[in-house]
Amino acid sequence: MKNIDSHGHVTGRSIYLDDIPTQRGTLYSVVFDAPVAHAKINHVDYSDALQVPGIERIITHEDIPGENQIGGIIPDEPLFAEDEIHFWGQPIALIVGTSEHVCRKARSLIKIETEALPVITDPREAFAKNQLICPPRTFKMGEPDAVWDACTHVFEGRADSNGQEHLYIETQGAYAWEMENGNIKIATSTQGPTAVQRTAAKVLGLSMHNIEVDVTRLGGGFGGKEDQATPWAVMVALAAKLMHRPVKISVNRMDDMRMTGKRHPYSSDYKIGLDEEGHILAYEAMIYQNSGAAADLSPAVMERTLFHCTNSYYVPNVKATAACCRTNLPPNTAFRGFGGPQGMFVMESAIAHAAHEMGIPARKIQYKNLLKDGDEFSYGQIAEHANAVKAWDDASRTYKLSAIENEVRTFNEEHHTEKKGLAIQPVCFGISFTNTQMNNARALVHVYHDGSIHVSTGAVEMGQGVNTKMLQVAMNTFGVSANRVRLDTTNTTRVANTSPTAASAGADLNGKALEIACTAILGRLQKVAAEKLNSAPERITLKKETVYIDDAPTELHWEELVMTAFSHRVSLSEKGHYATPEIHFDKSREKGHPFAYHVYGTAIIVVKVDCLRGRYVFEDVNIVHDFGKSMNTIVDLGQIEGGVVQGIGWMTLEELSFTKEGRLLSNALSTYKIPDIYAVPEVIDVKHLETAGHELAIRKSKAVGEPPLMYGLGAYFAIQNAVKAFNPGYLPKFDAPFTPEKVLLSLYEGKEIGVKSGKGALES
Ligand code: MTE
Ligand code: LUZ
Ligand code: MOS
Question: Where does ligand 3 bind, in terms of residues with CB under 6 Å?
Answer without folding.
Answer: 191, 221, 223, 226, 334-336, 338, 502-503, 706
